[in-house]
Amino acid sequence: MPSNVNPTVRRRRLGQELRRLRELKGMTAEEVAERLLVSQSKISRLENGRRSISQRDVRDLCGVYEVEDHRIVDSLMQMAKDSRQQGWWHAFGDIPYSVYIGLETDAESLRVYEPQMVPGLLQTRAYAEALISGALPEAPPSDIEKRVNVRSRRQDRVNAPENPLRLWAVIDESALRRVVGDKQVMIEQLEHLVEQSHLPHVTVQVLPFEMGAHPGINGQYAILEFPDAADSSVVYIEGVTSDLYLEKANDVQRYSVMYEHLRAQALNVEQTREFISKIAKSYTS
Q1: Is 28 helix (H, G, I), strand (E, B) or coil?
Q2: Nearest one of 267, 270, 279 to 170, comparing CA atoms
Q3: Which is nearest to 223 in space by CA: 193, 178, 262?
């Protein structure tokens, strides 16, 4: 385990290894849960990396799986210890989508489709403040500020001088037409979007209304890919009260194919810049 891998990714890798050991033993999650007198959902959460795992959990599971090599047990115990460390986002307090932030922080590339808003990694501060305030009308100002600060911190991956996140964003025209904040906020946001699109590792495409129905009509999603082959790609779908993470190869493949169709139907890079600039100019009238 590299020392710079964040705790979210540590939990994913540890969960994958525990699942592998269970499958080698030929046991179901239900059988393991019965042996340990815990719920089946706990075993599932430990294996998918969504739950913090203790060294005691690892010890108990290795006992059930009859792992005799002490080096393997010690390695897994160390991974469990490392996975309980805190990522940079914990300094901001309770963040509902902290699992996603952990994945995004370690991702090598991100493909995102946004039908209603400018992607968070490409938002200006003023746009983010207006957007979050509108989405959470009952949230106190301190909570709004915290979320905006976290979003700003996440953007460091895009603007990093070394090893920046490779970002591909397909944005629906409605996200450019919806006035978030006021017209001046939108002008600055759209100009920023064009500016960011010139970065060599950032690609922005707009899906105009005239394209009609398309594969992304059902809503937003993102596909995260990682530099280590041991880390499977993840499809992230944001929800109001809970989020969905898809890691099965068939699911990732299906969403990847959908994304290729979205890319094909969207305006190309140059057309997109002209299109965004035209809308920005319309806000000055």
Answers
A1: coil
A2: 267
A3: 262
